[in-house]
Amino acid sequence: MLRLLNLELQKLLLSRTSKVLIFVSFILPFTVLILSSIKINFFGFFTLELGELGIFNFPIIWHITTFFASQFKFFFAIVVVSMIGNEYSNKTLKQNLIDGLSKKEFILSKFYTIVFFSLIATLLIAVASFFIGMYYSSYTEASIIFRETSFLLAYFTKLIGFFSLCLFFGMLVKRSAFALAFLFILYIVEWIIFGLISWQANMDIAGKIQDFFPLKSMYNLIDQPFQRVMMTKFPEKGELMYDYAVHGGEIAIVLCWTAIFIFLSYKLLEKRDL
């Protein structure tokens, strides 16, 4: 595993574009979290400090930070599809296979890289969330501090699933721009299918079926936290209640899709004439 991971990292570090995108995908969410904790003075009229709104309290901070950090996954998605596009354009894929790397090892090297960078991103968010929470939160009990760290697992799973989908599209079309366009097409297709099912059946059935779609299942891992923040400010409003917890079944669905995408990527490579 380490050999395959080291091989892929060497390729990425030789590309200036990849290094910049990797840096941005790691640092930008971390920087946004830090900046969000700074007091902002609006021309002397008032001062905004998000920490005073309670969004950096434990345990809600795990929900807030992982949700917003996941919005920046597109930067590393570019790196993932570029990994495949560069292999074909630079003929390195064929050379690797000639040098003795099997097709299975080639796909595994990409997957190990996805897991590696997803793990680093998760650890960075975990460290940033912990220290910001320790600074702002009034709760110091360990049971409260670590109560909802399951959002970190959801974040990690979401990254692996999304990047595995990008890997599959990269293998399918062999071009970075087209692979990213397929993400948008898949998003539209999912909503078209949802609309057709809701038209033929009903919204509840359509919603349950939609939860098994690739992009929708990844989104479901970390629900939007805005409604939850409102619940803390207006606890008497029962209509704001919703299920924001991380569920094992939702993680299992994304892991199944991840396995399918990696398997299909391997099958595409196995049957393709290089």
Automatic annotation (TrEMBL):
<feature type="transmembrane region" description="Helical">
    <location>
        <begin position="251"/>
        <end position="269"/>
    </location>
</feature>
<keyword id="KW-0812">Transmembrane</keyword>
<keyword id="KW-0472">Membrane</keyword>
<dbReference type="GO" id="GO:0140359">
    <property type="term" value="F:ABC-type transporter activity"/>
</dbReference>
<protein>
    <submittedName>
        <fullName>ABC transporter permease</fullName>
    </submittedName>
</protein>
<keyword id="KW-1133">Transmembrane helix</keyword>
<dbReference type="GO" id="GO:0005886">
    <property type="term" value="C:plasma membrane"/>
</dbReference>
<dbReference type="Pfam" id="PF12679">
    <property type="entry name" value="ABC2_membrane_2"/>
</dbReference>
<feature type="transmembrane region" description="Helical">
    <location>
        <begin position="20"/>
        <end position="40"/>
    </location>
</feature>
<feature type="transmembrane region" description="Helical">
    <location>
        <begin position="111"/>
        <end position="132"/>
    </location>
</feature>
<feature type="transmembrane region" description="Helical">
    <location>
        <begin position="152"/>
        <end position="173"/>
    </location>
</feature>
<feature type="transmembrane region" description="Helical">
    <location>
        <begin position="180"/>
        <end position="199"/>
    </location>
</feature>
<feature type="transmembrane region" description="Helical">
    <location>
        <begin position="60"/>
        <end position="84"/>
    </location>
</feature>
